[in-house]
Amino acid sequence: MALSAEDTQTAGAVWEKIYADVEDNGAVVLSRMFKEHHHTVSYFKNFTQLQSVAETASAEEIAALAEVRAHGKKVFLALNDMVPHLNNVDALKETIAPLAKKHATELKIDVKDFEIIFDNLLALIGEKQGADAKTAFKKVTDLIYEEIKAAY
Length: 152
Description:
Blueprint: H1 5-19, H2 22-36, H3 48-53, H4 59-63, H5 66-82, H6 89-106, H7 112-129, H8 131-151
Helix pairs in contact: 1-8, 2-5, 2-7, 6-8, 7-8
């Protein structure tokens, strides 16, 4: 699945706006994942703050944790490395391959959990930029998810 030049341009503009607040937005995406899909907390056993409050804290409280903020930023940085390659599937695959391999073999993350992150990202884009931006960026998350699954 390739994106058109217009899709790529639109996606870049949407991403630029959401990435402008990388730390806060990354933390929000992850905190929602932890609250709505509690099994994902188990992937982060080394996040001691998260482990101690995950059951009782709100998504907002989880988003304020330093370890969640740092990892949310890391997730957004990885996506930021992918966005420039949306018009070049081979380059996109090269960018995704090491991430997919690490998550599949070393971290033992279920590939379906990437969908959770993407759904939360799209929800946040919709809240901050509207339905059109969300729809436009869904093409990006669909493409990236397909390439992650293929690399798993």
